[in-house]
Amino acid sequence: MLKIATALAATLVAFGAHAATVTFSFDNLQATTEINQNGSLGLFDSSLGTLTAIDLLLNGGMTTTLTLTNTAATAVRANATVEVDLSFASTIANLNTLLGNNAPELMLLATTGFQNYGASGSATASATFGPLTSTGIDDINSGLVLADFMAAGGGNFGISCASLSGLTLVGGGGNLSSLQTSTAGCGATITYTYTPAAQPPVNVPEPGSLALVGVALAGIALAARRKA
Q1: Is the pTM of this model over 0.85?
Q2: What backbone phi and psi angles, to 5 degrees, belong to 99?
Q3: Cis peptide leading into 131, omega within 30 of 0?
Q4: What does the longest C-alpha to C-alpha distance in the chain come to?
Q5: Domain extents for the chain?
Q6: 6 vs 204: CA distance, rounded Å
Q7: Do the Cβ atoms of 61 and 164 come closer than 8 Å?
Q8: Alpha carbons 141 and 138: distance in angstroms, whole number
Q9: Between β-strands 31-32 and 126-140, what pairing exists: parallel, antiparallel or unpaired?
Q10: Nearest CA to 164 among 50, 67, 16, 34?
């Protein structure tokens, strides 16, 4: 009876299979801007089953150290905002079009807030900020063509990113000089949702066969009892 129960359980598992997922990712270390980084993600192995959905996450981060110095003879007040724009591209043509052909995909911002700077030459004329950090994620889960990401046996496709960085000052009267050091890095994660390929059916004894087995077992038990 234990073998029969095991077979029945295996059959239930086979008929009750749910959607499965497989994920690939990469993350580049931050490097001094401007950056041009590359990575690769896995294609979906079509032998695993039927691909039903794709979720692509593009991520990036930046770190900045900033020194501002007032060059005017009078004190000034200003707010500085550091911006690093990350654009992405792919070796898959349709995805590259969806990404806007190197249009900015992530805008990373960090600000000093409004600060007071003393007159030139004073102890408070200069201030250093940082590390100022910012991270971002762009979730791309629509517009992807499933067939572009499938291949028998799997494989890989490329993702690259590039940065454009800068500094915006509000206030200061144009009298603030800046010294800026920035780093940035990017990465990506792709998750495939699929229906697993059908497994070979598990043979389960028919009800009539089970009844015969039961009668036989009962007969053996009765014969053993009489012999005893």
Answers
A1: no
A2: -80, 0
A3: yes
A4: 118
A5: 19-227
A6: 10
A7: no
A8: 10
A9: unpaired
A10: 34
> Facing residues of 26 across strands?
188
Which three-class secondary structure string do you get for the chain? CHHHHHHHHHHHHHHCCCCEEEEEEEECCCEECCCEEEEEEECEEHHHEEEEEEEEEEEEEEEEEEEEEECCCCCEEEEEEEEEEEEEEECCHHHHHHCCCCCEEEEEEEECCCEEECCCCCCCCEEEEEEEEEEEEEEECCCCCHHHHEECCCCEEEEEEEEEEEEEEEEHHHCEEEEEEEEEEEEEEEEEEEEECCCCCCCCCCHHHHHHHHHHHHHHHHHHHHHC
Say if CB 31 and CB 37 are below 8 A apart.
yes
pLDDT (0 to 100) of residue 110: 97
Q: Which residue has the higher pLDDT, 212 or 107?
A: 107
- Nearest by Cα to 83 from 104, 56, 59: 104
Going by pLDDT thresholds of 50, 70 and 90, the confidence category of residue 169 is very high
Over residues 189-207, mean pLDDT: 78
Q: How far apart are CA 163 and CA 226, in angstroms?
A: 89
The C-alpha atoms of residue 82 and residue 130 are separated, in whole angstroms, by 11
Mean pLDDT of 58-87: 97
